[in-house]
Amino acid sequence: MVATRDDRSYGVARSVPPGEDDAGAMMDLRRFNVRYAATWRLLAEIMRRHQAAHDLRLYWFYPGLSPTGVARLQRPDGTKVLDLDVAHSVVSVPEMSSSPAHRYVDALLDADDPKDTVDQIASACGLHPSTSSMPESNATVLCFRVIAGVLERRMLDRRPLRTSPGYVDNRGDVDASGWAVEIADCASELDRARKAKSSLDESQFVRHLFALHSDDRILAFAEPHRTSHVAFDFRTGVAHARHPSSGERSAISLRDLYSTEGRRLVPLIDWVERFL
After folding, report:
1. What is the C-alpha to C-alpha distance for residues 47 and 82, in angstroms, rounded to an integer?
2. What is the C-alpha separation between 136 and 122, in angstroms, rounded?
3. Core-most of 129, 145, 146, 154, by most CB within 10 Å?
4. Residues in Cβ contact with 87 at an 8 Å cutoff, skipping those fewer than 6 apart
5. Which residue numbers in the chain have pLDDT < 70?
6. Is 176:202 a contact under the CB 8 Å cutoff?
7. Can you tell me the distance from the alpha carbon of 42 to that of 51, in angstroms, rounded to the nearest whole number?
8. Cα angle vertex 102, ends 97, 104, to 5°?
9. 3-state secondary structure of 268
10. ∠ CA 19-22-24 to the nearest 5 degrees?
């Protein structure tokens, strides 16, 4: 007899032979951890090269439906730059449809130099490589680089490590998450907006917040405040941490720490990992 389990890594049910459920679940978890790390590395490198010039923003579609979703880089007016389908590791840009880099995780892992893959994808999005030196990492870019660094360091870990935006986009109903409202200190403003409109895209209040969290409860769609997590404010470059077992709270300016540590990223990644 073949059992069916709910594979939370992909948000679909799949058949698993008896006795192989645990091993299969762990393999799926690791594969998805690698996909997640590659996704954020690609996002971080594109942002590092082009965010300052194009004011790129991140929007994550469907985080309320699965821990996968679609990561979209867009311009301030909402114009799409690219979509990354995390579950299938595919870039959604018309110019990439016939390129090996269309499957970005494979392309990054297979490349002799991942920079070539980053530049190829960026060029297909209309973000042409600069001939000057790498721009200084601003607050937003630094957050992306730290998140990518943590995910890469722990991509073969036995526990899931994910990010969640400060909102839940579930088939058009976009609600701000409680943890994000608390950090953004926008409860009163959000309440007034809710009273004024029957239908409201609440992500506008918390779109600049993403949480990196680690806990088995992630696979049961638990909110970050119920897990070990660190929340990043892309506007200010401040990381907010809370450990659920101890209740310990802390916040730090990633830019200040980056400067103090001689522009080394490792101390920032180490600080975040303390709370995961």
Report:
1. 12
2. 18
3. 146
4. 10, 11, 35, 66, 68, 69
5. 1-27, 63-68, 94-101, 131, 170-172, 218-225, 244
6. yes
7. 13
8. 170
9. helix
10. 90
